[in-house]
Amino acid sequence: MNLGLSKKERKFDEDKAFPHIMLAPTIVVMLVMTVYPIAFTIYYSFTDYNLLKAAKKGFNFIGIDNFTKLFQNAVFQTAILNTIKFTIFAVLAETIIGLLIAVFVNGLDRGQKVMRTLLLLPYLLPTVTVALAWRMLLSSNYGPINQWLVDLGFTEMANYNWFYHMGTAFWTVWVIDVWQNVPFVFLLLYASLQGVPAQQYEAAQLDGANMFQRFWYVTLPNIRSSIFLCLLLRTIDTFRLFDKVNILTQGGPVNTTTTITQYLYAFGIKTLNFGFGSAGALVMTILVLLLAIPYIRTAIGSKN
Asked: Do 27 and 157 belong to one domain?
């Protein structure tokens, strides 16, 4: 009841309530689109829910059986190792290459706009388009890359299939993923470099610091938080790798490129065994959090 309040006080209360009223629809949508699916994913992970069987027989609570089956499955164990290995190598490569390119472009006197545009093109392309384009370039029948290698004298590469040889399948997908996502790291770090005070470089140069010393003692400390942000975002995104693997290798050969998402798609989604798939999704989420925690703690520590 606002009967005892003055007009000024009532207006103040209305002004305070207005932002909450405007945010309410968005909050409701976010709850429906995030909290609800998460809650049911957790619930289904403890059941034998199968979309086809549930319509006739329903589903039962089976405790941690899905999780037990997951961790006893050799293919899932391989998928976890592949995903962690791919994430570590891809994120490190993307961050290092993206940082070096950002520093190089930031130091150019001319052509920065052109370079920015050209470098961002791979990241702007849809993942499916990138995968199909590289599959054509590396085709064992008509791929120009194999033909160039043959012209250079590597005749054994005439019909070489990059995606179905155990020694090259994993690293070929890795190269493609790095090629597409380096521009993302470049963009974030390039933007961060714009905020580094020029006076710090001038002072370091007057003190006799060479180019490497200026990079190590001036550039890196100023963009450290942005680097950790890149590491965090790329870790989360890379851990969900699916499109490229599904298009290029389908997890082969002999599961050398099988990732967690590829495994869940093959054994959870395609078989409509959503209980099993939900358990796998929870395991993947926990692994992502475990990988992300060190980045977050380091970033918070660097700010403090």
From this structure: no
3-state SS, residue 185: helix
Instruction: Enter the DSSP assignment of 61.
Output: B
Positive or negative, the CA dihedral 153, 150, 169, 97 is positive
Reduced to 3 states (helix: H, G, I; strand: E, B; else coil), residue 47 is: strand
* Chain mean pLDDT for the chain: 87
8 Å CB contact between 278 and 258:
no
Quick: pLDDT tens for 17-30: 777 788 888 888 88
Structural tokens at position 95? 């961050």
Please state, in angstroms and as integers, the Cα–Cα distance from residue 204 to each residue in 35, 105, 245, following that order. 51, 20, 47
Give backbone dihedrals phi and psi of 162, rounded to 5 degrees, phi first.
Answer: -65, -25
Residue 237 and residue 114 in one domain: yes
Taking residue 217's Cβ as centre, other Cβ atoms within 10 Å add up to: 14
Same domain, yes or no: 88 and 233:
yes
Residue 159 CA: distances (Å) to CA of 143, 151, 165, 248: 9, 13, 12, 17
Query: Are both 120 and 241 inside the same structural domain?
Result: yes
Q: Residue 140: what pLDDT?
A: 85
Q: Which two tokens stand for residue 138?
A: 């590396």
- The H or E element that residue 255 is part of is none
Question: pLDDT grade, residue 14 (50/70/90)?
Answer: low
Q: Residue 181 maps to which CATH number?
A: 1.10.3720.10
